[in-house]
Amino acid sequence: MSLLVEFLNTLKTTVVDVLPILSIILVFQLLVIRKPIHKVKQVGFGFIYVLIGLSLFLLGLEKALFPLGKLMAEQLTANEFILGNDTATTIATWSDYTWVYVFAAAIGFSTTIAEPSLIAVAIKAEEVSGGAIKANSLRITVAIGVAIGIALGSYRIVVGHPIHYYIITGYIIVVIQTFFCPKLIIPLAYDSGGVTTSTVTVPLVAALGLGLASTIPGRSALIDGFGLIAFASLFPIIAVMAYAQITQVKTHKKTNR
Amino acid sequence: MNQQLFVFFKALLGSCKDLLPIVLVIAFFQFAVLQQPMPNLGDIFIGLGFVVLGLTFFIYGLEMGLFPIGESMAQAFARKGSIWWLVTFAFCLGFGTTVAEPSLIAVAKEAANVAAIGGIIANDAQAQLDYANGLRFTVAFAVGFAIVVGVLRILRGWPIHYLIIGGYIMVVIMTSFAPTWIIGIAYDSGGVTTSTITVPLVTALGVGLASAIKGRNPMVDGFGLIAFASLTPMVFVMIYGMVLG
């Protein structure tokens, strides 16, 4: 029974969040386009499904994954875990955080695979490209990018380098890749940076960043705890372009034979 | 009926597969690395069931509702041939979906808190509220602007990489002038703006426009709107920081 109440509460918040979008669509459809919506019944049901689906999804995450994932991020970054029973050393070096990097990469990869907005873009990309781009390959490539990004971002928090050196270097790599990459993939690659960081990824990654920044001496949770999201939106761009380049080189070799 | 049920179960199975990596990662770290038992196993199973069901419904609704409406509106605007209405719609869509975005509201509040502690703004509720609202409207305006530029790009067929690289150069230049306390917030604000419902709508809008306009390729010209929406907030938030600082 309380589960139902919780579901209705989540549903209410989701509906309120969607209201601005819905009203903009309706106002423009009715006052500017002035035509009835094509297949209005199907679209209406589609919206209802989206609302129910998103609410169930959020409630489930809140119930099952977030508490455990956040707790895990805290435990893995706690000093007792990092230093273990080795009382001789009291100061951790960056290599003591191996499990943190592994966790960062693993959680980055797995949450990206479940990210609904990435699924949406991947479905659209497969449809538009006539199947040349496979939705699943795109999602796995983006997830690998996020995994590398979050692991590197955690390393940055541990060693305490300024964030903009990393981001600007990333930009330079993106710019260089852009000139050698197949033209068709460029817009999709740029888009894949923005879609990775939403419902599933952000809460867990933020917990990891804040956990790391609060246990390492000299880091401020408020300054260093943020920024992992920026890493998670940059590296998928590099990964998708790299994937396209590798595929291009492979097919090029085949046709030359 | 039977066939519909079959399709539904296939979709459920797909969602299970999407979720499997997270379950494996959490189980591995809980048992093998942290070496602890799983707490509230019942809750976790109920929650996982919800997530799988939710994802399945979401994808159904996506293809039934969000994609078709985005594309049909794009085509209607293209047929109408009025750039002004299209640009107004683009701006409203970007601004309207962002200004109410819960994650942005949360980030803006947090940022106001940091600024008050850091002595950037007066440490009272009114100043913090003003600052948070200023940040929110800045980001929402930036996203509206981004969708407008992105839509104009589709209409005119500008190559995307010049615009994006130009944006990157702006970010780099601004980083060296903007006050340091705004940089982290600015960089993250690019990522929080694109929500789960905005992304499919905006993608469908772009692809729909590119397929409705002669001489545009939906693959080359249709994608890219989201890229703009995650880039402009960084620049605009840094400008906001410079104005205040």
Can you put this structure into words, describing what you see?
The complex is a heterodimer of chains A (257) and B (245). Chain A is mainly alpha-helical. Chain A is built from 11 helices and no strands. Chain A is globular. Chain B has 245 residues and is mainly α. Helix content of chain B is 85%, strand content 0%. Chain B is built from 10 helices and no strands. Chain B has helices at 2-33, 41-80, 83-99, 102-117, 125-156, 160-177, 180-192, 198-212, 218-222, 225-244. In chain B, helix 2 (41-80) runs parallel beside helix 8. The relative contact order of chain B is 0.12. Chains A and B meet through helix 1, helix 2, helix 4, helix 5 and helix 7 of A and helix 1, helix 2, helix 3, helix 4 and helix 6 of B.
Show the helix and strand layout.
The complex is a heterodimer of chains A (257) and B (245).
Chain A lengths: L1 H32 L6 H38 L1 H5 L14 H16 L2 H13 L6 H25 L3 H18 L5 H10 L5 H15 L5 H4 L3 H29 L1
Chain B lengths: L1 H32 L7 H40 L2 H17 L2 H16 L7 H32 L3 H18 L2 H13 L5 H15 L5 H5 L2 H20 L1
User: In one word, what is the shape of chain B?
Assistant: flat
Structural class of chain B: mainly alpha
Backbone CA Rg of chain B? 22 Å
Overall average residue pLDDT of chain A: 86
Taken as a percent bin, the fraction of beta residues of chain B is under 5%
Distance linking N and C termini of chain B: 64 Å
Instruction: Classify the secondary structure makeup of chain A into a structural class.
Output: mainly alpha
Overall pLDDT metric of chain B: 88
Quick recap:
Chain A is mostly helical and 257 residues long.
Q: What tags apply to this protein structure?
A:
heterodimer, A: 257 residues, mainly alpha, 11 helices, globular, B: 245 residues, 85% helix
